[in-house]
Amino acid sequence: MKTTRLSIATVCLTASCLFGQSPEEAVNFLQDETGVGGRARAMGSAYAGIADDYSALYWNPAGLALMQSTEITAELDHLRFNNEARFSQNTMSQNRNFVKLRSLGLACKFPAERGSLVVAFGFNRFKDYDNVLRFDGFSRTGNGLEFELDDGSGGSGIYAFDRDIRQSESISESGRLDAWSLGGGIAVSPDAWLGVSAHWISGSSEYLFDFTQKDLFNAYSTFPADFSDYAMHQEILSNFNGWNMKIGGMFRLNSILRLGLTADLPVTLRIRENYRENDALTFDDGTVDEADLGSGEWEYLVKYPAKIGGGLCLNLGPVLLAGGLEYRDWTQVKFDRPAEFSSNEGYNALIADNALFAERFRPVTSYGAGAELRLPGTGLSLRAGWRNVPSPAKGADRTLDRRYLSAGIGFDVDRGASFNLSVIRGSWNRIGSDSYTPDVTEEAITTTRLLAGVTLRF
User: Fold this and answer.
1) pLDDT score for 20
2) How far apart are CA 156 and CA 440, in angstroms?
3) pLDDT value for 4
4) Is the CB of residue 33 less than 8 Å from the CB of residue 326?
5) Among residues 101, 339, 373, 405, which one has the fewest Cβ atoms lying within 10 Å of its Cβ?
6) Sorting pLDDT into bands at 50, 70 and 90, what band is 134?
7) How far apart are CA 180 and CA 439, in angstroms?
8) What span, in angstroms and rounded, lies between the C-alpha atoms of 59 and 127?
9) What percentage of the chain reaches a pLDDT higher than 90?
10) Residue 325: beta bridge partners?
């Protein structure tokens, strides 16, 4: 029988994962928002210059003033996520399916003697945190894992169990960024419209991490360090809230061309994390040493800079063409301490990480384009689009950009109802490593999203 306890090296590995979010995770909370609206997504999210339905609350609230009637909208979202990961010359594939309510809202058009006034309110899901990853392979690279063991004679020593082992890692994430949204748009002239929307943001995410390593070829066979395998489990449950405001303008440049401009004001998210961690070390004789490595709660703030967007819409009768872009400087993201919490070593370390945002990230402009063909006399509209979201990581290769191809169909039953069905196919690569698996893991990710929505007009 052996008695084990964590060495300093193992404690360092644990603390880096659990005590506060990394800059990468902070950026991930808002990076590549998917937005709402099947028509908008089918047209490559190039919607700031169109935005003439309920989804204008998200894309450009000025477009609410273009609506011709009151409408109720509901939309469902089905996501299939696939991750093919390559680690140590071994490839594994993981698939997950997710079904969620995307939006449910009401836009009311009020009578006006001149111009237009429309107010909208509803629930919207701006972003998902759904992700899966699993890989397995033999590694000769040391990960620094060590244990202090009794040597059986009253003494102890630190013994490494860190290389020439088979490693396996599994990560599962799920969650969403939701908002209750309220906004309105008005016509200030026959060729200009203004709008504003406010969003009370809430959401949650669940992060599950499992790591194992096995002494596959009995390289660790000398007492007391006759290791068989090691298993680590971590859970981080995050809840967050905040609020955001978007200002939009739309301008008719001529009889066929319209310009939309938007600005999302800076937003602060308050993050509350509950974490738990445990591990188990098994020896060749079957002895298992299990440890509860702790649990707790941790709150902090993440402050994001403004986001600027714009788009053009070219109306050629039955054909509608659109282009759009969004800009945000990820170097300006900052961690902060909630005002009611006193400063301590943990918060000081967190705020010190603010320098890493400028070192690791860059400003990013995402862009997209789309088209819609309305078939006269049928009530049918055919849509297609393309969107590119560059990686915010400084110096990132273009293969890490997120690329989306989309298509959709709309059908107006009559003036009182319409249906939309859209498919968005996404693909990107991801390269990473962590303290437990310093060998590089290469991921090829593909997503297929199906959006189905219905709109009733009054």
Assistant:
1) 47
2) 34
3) 53
4) no
5) 339
6) very high
7) 42
8) 14
9) 82
10) 310, 367
Closest CA to 6 of 215, 149, 143, 156: 149
d(CA 272, CA 5): 30
Query: Does pLDDT of 8 surpass 80?
Result: no
pTM recorded for the entire structure: 0.90
C-alpha dihedral sign at 331, 332, 338, 341 = positive
Strand order in the sheet with 146-150: 4-6, 146-150, 156-160
* 330: DSSP letter: G
Other beta carbons within 10 Å of 54: 30
Cβ distance 35 to 41 under 8 Å? yes
Name 331's Cβ contacts closer than 8 Å, sequence gap at least 6: 357, 358, 361, 362, 363
The token pair that represents 300 in the structure block:
């902090």
Contact in structure between 243 and 187 (CB atoms under 8 Å): no
User: What is the helix (H) or strand (E) element at residue 56, kind and residue range?
Assistant: helix 56-59
Nearest CA-CA partner of 114 in 190, 47, 168: 190
- Which tens digits make up the pLDDT trace of 34-47? 889 999 999 999 99
pLDDT in the model for residue 367: 97
Quickly tell me which residue has 């894992």 as its tokens. 145
Of 201, 137, 209, 205, which Cα lies nearest the Cα of 171? 209
Residue 166, token pair as written in the block: 């088979």
Beta bridge partners of 68: none
Rounded Cα distance between 197 and 120, Å, is 9
Which residues contact residue 377 at a Cβ distance below 8 angstroms, ignoring those fewer than 6 apart? none
DSSP strands (E only) in 253-353: 257-264, 267-283, 288-304, 307-316, 319-329, 334-336
Quick one: which H or E segment has residue 179? strand 165-189
Q: What are phi and psi of 361, to 5 degrees?
A: -125, 175
Q: By the 8 A CB rule, do 185 and 116 touch?
A: yes
**Closest to 75 (Cα-Cα) out of 143, 129, 30, 125:** 125
Answer for the pair 455, 73: CB distance below 8 angstroms, yes or no. yes
